[in-house]
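Continuing from the previous page of notes. For each protein in this section, the sequence appears first, followed by its structure tokens. Read the first protein now.
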Amino acid sequence: MNEFETFDYESCLWLQLHVRNATRPVTIRNVGMRRRTYPWPHTPQVKCAEPALQKLFDASVNTLLNCAQETSQDGGGRERQQYSGDCGHQQHAIRFAFGDTRHGARYLKTFSQGMTLDGFFLDCWPAYDRLARLAQRQMGTTIWGPILDHGVGFNFDCWNYYMESGDREALVEPYPRLKKFAGYLDRLRRDDGLLPVEDVGVPSVWIDHHAYRHQRQKQCAFNLYAAAMFQQALAPLAELFGDDPAPYRQLGREIHEATVVRFWDKQQRVFVVGDGRLCDRSLATAILYDQCPGNDVAAALRALVECPPEMGLSYPANAVWRYWALAKGGRVDVIVRELRTKWATMNSVIHNNALQENWDTKMDEGDQFSHCPLAPLVMLYQCVAGIRPTAPGFARVEIRPQLGGIGDLNLVAHTPRGAIHFATKGGEVRLRVPADCEAVFVADGQSRPIRGEFVYR
């Protein structure tokens, strides 16, 4: 009797067994797959009256089971590494849907430990991949290096973790490394006050690989992102740890002002990334972090709704930025429409109960059929239900639902203070919030404090 088991994350539809050189009958027993899952504290509760959307949300949960195991991977079938940037968004879904903060705390610790002497992060650390890239970059054999924009995103990961968990202790180790990274970015700026996206040495700037035709077109989005990081992630973290936030806010202002000078088109009233092109990431970042001069966001929001031919659109794992901006602009209807038409119709959702890597992913090709584009789940909690902490650990919470035409819905959002129960039926919204959570319900331009159970008709 022989027993064989591969220790591999890979999934499959078909399994082949080859028996060679057998001189007598061979009996094969107990062929199967062992599934490895993280011990989540809660089972996600999401029920939607629309079957196609329910299938999409189920696929989103299953994708998290696949990609968030001992680390937050981008997918089990290829890199199997934790990233910030496009992959860090899954931490929102983990906290809201599964109610887990240990996973995020470990991610902040281990990712931050990939800090180089120069001051940038080995972005998917701990992973051999980025160590190999250091030598490859020196020899000019790859375009991929440690991703600087993921270091920017990691600052937001830290701040979002604190707001959604209230746990300061998990930030004690990463925070000094965030300051070192800030110094690295400051030294990297060129004479025009902008951060470069080309010829930066060993690191690289990625942002996205679908939205841009040329590397230079990423500079606007990268600088808006970094400016927002300094002002709205690192500065409040500095206050949390008793440091002076003013230098970070000033640095963010300088980068923002230089970006406006270089990329703001006064006639079109949008950021133009070069060569007459727009990108969803620049427009979304500018709306989210109030970076349009004079808060003139109408043209940017219109472009995000209409998606004109000259605008580059990010791949699925980065779709959250455009959707967050649409929600801020009151256009959740666009998000819900695309959940129905772009997401629920994905090959991976229909055939694999998971979320695929790219918009047009076909079977038997190189794209992953279970990646980490968790926009459907993140949008459901943060934009459709509109649940957002306004004080660390959900001591205060704003609930601003924008149903966008979605069918009847029932979900549970987990917080450190207990579960928030959210349900809609026929346009009526029913809520139950934890007793020690100071909640505000926002609808029709009015805010009202709520406690315990609440019904809005």
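Done with the first. The second protein uses the same format. Note its length before scrolling.
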Amino acid sequence: MDELTTVMQIANAVARAGGRTFMVGGCVRDMLLGMEVKDFDLEVYGLAADKLFSAVTQVCEVDQVGMSFGVMKVRHCDIDIAIPRRENKSGKGHKGFIIDTDPELDFASAAARRDFTVNAIMRDLLTGEIIDPHQGCRDLKNKILRHVSPAFSEDPLRVLRGMQFIGRLGFDIHPDTVKLASQLSQHELAGERIAAEWEKLLLKGTFIVKALNFLRDCRWVRFYPELEALINCPQNPLWHPEGDVWNHTLLVTQAAAEMRKNSPDDLIFMLAALCHDFGKPGCTVTGDDGRITSAGHDTLTAPALNFITSIWHRTDLPERVIPLISRHMHPWQLAESNASDKAFRKLALFVRRTDLLADLAEADIRGICMSDAAMSQRLAAVDRFRRRCRELEIAGQVPVPLVLGRDLIARGMTPGKEFKPLLDKCFEAQLEGVFTTRTGALEFLDELLCER
């Protein structure tokens, strides 16, 4: 049974019990925008918690994990059911609220606790009636994000929600909301909540430039010093006519968003794009001749590491992102210099995923406002890099040693300090292309042992 069928069954069960069910929040917004609705937030009026629970359990199983706040979740479906409620700030953090459920609460008061007007629209599931006490439909038509009320300030996470909504919807944000957001701080926010909003931007956003410029305009970029340092960091206009490192980074991340593959690697790729030039502020100098350079910026990866670990507590992210950043110019450089197979294989050992590295290099190129001819030349070099990696079978994997310790044992050797130098020599020969098959590897090993 799909979610929509379950939702309609819930609405009918609630109606039989004397209540009224509305779709609320993002599902109404997405429906009005003609987007696919994947999860449903329902708000039920006219029924106390016990009667609501009795009505709903006639048609589906629910978890009561949020019943103290007037919320229940339908099992095996992305459906939340809530009783209208008031929220009053009582302490720090996102849990510092006094919640008062009221099934008879008026629509305007119930919707006033929401973040943006476009998320404060209600739709009666059975009649289709739209209830819009805060003019969300007007803002939806005009593609504007506007806070519902001053209560917006009670949960600063709404600033980051605004960031990712802009990234996903492409809306403009009302100047009054920008001003209000600039007065808030993320210091009390839980790390996992911050990470979740960034992931929504990076994994779902298609308007990255607008989203991150909002972060700059409301001054929340101050909470991400590695990002803030990019603003007004100059670049050589001959190579970067798009302007400072901030502008370039936004364009690169935008290009990366357009290249996402809806794969488990998307977050790795998007973070690499966002952070790829974080080393430039620490390396950029202007010479006596006025020439701007940033030598070594690709290997200055500490700022990227700081940014990633300040948001995510996952060891796999820096382990996979940082090597990509530190070699992000190598694809076109290796291709243009017609580098050896060994150079390609050693690069694959270091970055692990040359396919992601090639995509990062392409996004970096597309984030430069160069001439069509220059861009075509650079992109052609990246395509040559991709072809070489496929030919060498290192596009999505690292070279695996063809000679192993068990091969030495099979030849009568006892494990000891001699093993590593021999295995290293065999692997080095493999990287140089002396052999490419298991048979060739064992022949090389036998010749090596005969020379001892």
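What the second structure shows: The chain has 21 helices and 13 strands. The mean pLDDT is 93. We return to this in next week's lecture.
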